[in-house]
Design a protein that fits this description.
Elements lengths: L19 E6 L4 E7 L1 E6 L2 E5 L6 E14 L2 E15 L2 E5 L3 E3 L5 H13 L5 H24 L1
Parallel strand pairs: 1-7
Antiparallel strand pairs: 1-2, 3-4, 3-5, 5-6, 6-7, 6-8
């Protein structure tokens, strides 16, 4: 029986240059499953870069830009928090939202931002939630404008 090609076996790297497997999983589907050279994830206190043979980690993600550096340059996605696990050159990201930067709509985000600014909040919890929502929208807007 002939062996399957590397492209048909996602568990094996297509080349030593692209040696990190990245999987981004949302509750609805697997958004990304590919091999890349480098990954940059958003953590609550900044960005974290991952290259080949990095030590294992498990970390809570912040919201912000996921950057994948591969054969066709870099691709960016907006992540809405979640968790990242790295082990044996395999990065698994669990998040409730992953949107490719190119599909972000600047005018829609600006409208959402204006709506969020006009909403009132009275309790400390409501104020914190409103501020977090505004921060996420501003982060998404920055990425959307960079991608246009």
């Amino acid at each position: 029986m002939a062996s399957a090609s590397t492209e048909n076996r996602p568990n094996q790297s297509p080349s030593s240059e692209y040696s990190i497997r990245v999987q981004v999983v949302t509750p609805e589907r697997i958004v990304i499953d590919e091999w890349v050279k480098q990954v940059v994830v958003p953590l609550p206190d900044g960005e974290f870069g991952i290259a080949k043979n990095h030590d294992p980690i498990i970390a809570k993600l912040g919201f912000g830009t996921l950057k994948l550096i591969g054969s066709s340059g870099s691709r960016k996605f907006f992540l809405n928090g979640g968790f990242v696990q790295l082990r044996d050159n395999q990065v698994v990201i669990l998040t409730d939202k992953a949107v490719e930067a190119g599909s972000l709509n600047v005018s829609q985000i600006e409208q959402d931002l204006q709506t969020a600014r006009s909403q009132s909040a009275s309790s400390d919890a409501e104020i914190d939630l409103r501020l977090l929502n505004l921060e996420k929208l501003r982060s998404r807007l920055r990425l959307a404008k960079q991608s246009k």
